[in-house]
Design a protein that fits this description.
This protein is elongated. The chain has a domain of about 45 residues. It has four helices and no strands. About 10% of the residues have low confidence. By secondary structure, it is mainly alpha-helical. About 0% of the residues are buried.
């Protein structure tokens, strides 16, 4: 069961990193130019709400709430998996 939870946490951490993957096309593309263009576009896109939260110090509250909710969901699923495993063992023991 713990291996399943560890695997889910690993997959979730990879999902959170938000890695960018560039596929190979027919034309040869200089990835440094693409990366620089992406960085410039990201630098020009300002999210006012996030800037305001950051300025007020509320962004940490938002991040904390999201982390608490996700941790609660992970703990709930782990507990549910434990209960289901226990019920499966009881059912298999009753059939014998």
């Amino acid at each position: 069961m713990y291996k399943k939870v560890q695997f889910l946490l690993l997959v979730f951490s990879f999902w959170l990193t938000g890695t960018v993957v560039h596929a190979q096309g027919k034309d040869s593309v200089d990835l440094r130019k693409v990366w620089t263009a992406d960085q410039q576009r990201a630098a020009s896109d300002h999210v006012e709400m996030a800037d305001r939260f950051r300025a007020d110090g509320k962004i940490y509250v938002v991040v904390a709430v999201v982390v608490i909710i996700l941790a609660g969901l992970i703990l709930y699923v782990a507990r549910l998996d434990r209960k289901i495993s226990r019920l499966e063992k009881d059912i298999s023991a009753d059939k014998r």
